Amino acid sequence: MSPRTAATIALTVALVSAISVRSRVRADAEARDLQPFRDDSGVVQTVSANGAFTPDNPFFRSLGSNGRACVTCHQASDGWTITPEHVRARFAATGGEDPLFRPNDGATCPSDDVSTIQAKRSAYRMLLTKGLIRVGMGIPTGAEFTLLDADDPYGCATAAELSLFRRPLPSTNLGFLSAVMWDGRESAPGHTLLENLRQQAIDATLGHAQSGAPPTAFDADAIVALESGLFTAQIEDRGAGRLTQHGGGGGPRELAAQPFFVGINDPLGGNPAGAAFEPRAFTLFSAWMADNWREEANRAIARGEELFNTRPIAITGVRGLNDLLHAPSIQGTCTTCHDSPNVGNHSLPLAIDIGVSAATRRTPDMPLYTLRCTATGEIVQTMDPGRALVTGKCADIGKMKGPVLRGLAARAPYFHNGSAATLLDVVNFYDERFNLNLTPRDKADLVAFLRAL
């Protein structure tokens, strides 16, 4: 058991109780700082900006039939999601009886045998190894594509319900969202973000918590009030120290004050204010770049931020970007897609396919779906059809949104399917995918920057 697991196992398991939550809120009502947590890079912290964080909030209470609450899959210690390390700790501490371990979406198939501890380890192996929840979705009526084959190692997927294994998105920093859920399925046209988050809370109660009835309006609104006020970011780096020192702009308090509106700094001309795109979307640590006497760890973070902002990328083969603009190659940087200033998600609901779910990247634990586009006859193989299962459009196969990047160090693994175990794996993916020719120092600097978010 690692030191981090030993130090946090009791906190992780106990987060499902209101008593434990009460101990995580400091008495300082004005600051609303929640207890910081150590992660692999230093310290991550959350602040509650709207004063709605109370231990009796229904976010921490079971609202369904299987013992789950929102907090079951959204742990403060894990950046308000779950991590395999702590999933395994919860399994060991409870013999697989923690509410997280329920067959309806925690197992590789709802019909999996969970009668023994060995059977549970097998059934819940995607949770235990990658922190993945099974999402069952069928192909929409009238879709532009058909399913030719479902190669599912668990024998569960059908055309009526594909098995999709995805990471729970963090229930923090939600005020910066332009789309709700990886595939945007909870973002209804014409609805506000709060309305969409409210519907998400209802659907999660009915689905994940297996409730026979939706939560009351009071409970749904209270959950959204809590979630929408949470801001989470790395506050301390093991090498660089406090991320607010000497002009640094890290930490959740600064993040809570970050201006945002849908379309802000959009590179495709979607900014409603009409402002030009600024590729230097991150300015958190620019002061450290000019501060020549600072420690090398601080300068590495600043160099990584500069690379993220300015390293040229020839963007090719990205469904939802190159085809949308009818441009085989687009000259950009990391911030072309991660454009929200000092946040890092796309400020408009632009779902794209960078190849994370491509057949060439398949691992033996993941299903593979072979789809045929009806109009063109095109055959597409993917581990996850993504937004296409919402819209039914061939053009949307494999598309996912980009997540908010703040608080990354606390919530490995990465990408929607947990295919990148570390941030270095993420950097290596982009280096290979877009032929960036990054040097070892470039990679180390980018990782240092991402860990400081």
Keywords:
alpha+beta; four-stranded antiparallel β-sheet; disordered N terminus; single chain; 453 residues; 28% helix
Give a written overview of the molecule:
With 453 residues, this protein is an alpha+beta fold. The chain folds into 3 domains: 1-31 and 50-132 and 167-228, no CATH class; 133-160 and 360-395, no CATH class; 261-356 and 400-453, no CATH class. It contains 15 helices and 11 strands. It is globular and about 60 Å long.
Topology overview:
Elements (H helix, E strand, L loop, with lengths): L2 H12 L3 H5 L14 E2 L3 E7 L21 H4 L10 H11 L22 H7 L1 H6 L2 E5 L7 E7 L10 E5 L26 H14 L10 H12 L1 E8 L3 E2 L9 H5 L29 H5 L5 H15 L2 E4 L5 H4 L3 E4 L35 E6 L5 E4 L5 H4 L31 H11 L6 H12 L2
Antiparallel strand pairs: 1-2, 2-6, 3-5, 4-10, 6-7, 8-9, 10-11
Helix pairs in contact: 1-4, 7-8, 11-15, 14-15
> In one word, what is the shape?
globular
Strand content: 5-15%
Helix vs. strand class: alpha+beta
Quaternary organisation of the protein chains: single chain
Give the end-to-end Cα distance, rounded to a whole number of Å. 26 Å
Q: Order of strands across the biggest sheet?
A: 1-2-6-7
Counting DSSP H or I runs of 4 or more residues, the number of helices is: 15
- The topology string of helices and strands comes to HHEEHHHHEEEHHEEHHHEHEEEHHH
The largest sheet, given as strand count, sense and whether it forms a barrel, is: 4 strands, antiparallel
Question: How many separate domains make up the residues?
Answer: 3
Relative helix content: 25-40%
Tell me the Rg in angstroms. Answer: 21 Å
Catalogue the unreliable spans.
Answer: 1-31
Number of strands: 11
Mean pLDDT score, rounded? Answer: 91
